[in-house]
Amino acid sequence: MVVDNYDHIWDCCCDHGLLGAALLAKCTAPHIHFVDIVPELMGELEKKLRRFFPADSGSISQWQVHCMDVAALPLQEHSGKHLVIIAGVGGDLTAEFVREIHLRCPNVEIDFLLCPVHHQFTLRQQLIHCDFHLIDETLMLENQRFYEILLVSNKKLSASSINPVGSLIWKANSPEQSRIAAGYLSKTLAHYKRMQLKAGSAVQHIIDAYCAVRS
Question: Hey, what long-range contacts does 197-202 have (CB within 8 A, 24 or more apart)?
Answer without folding.
Answer: none
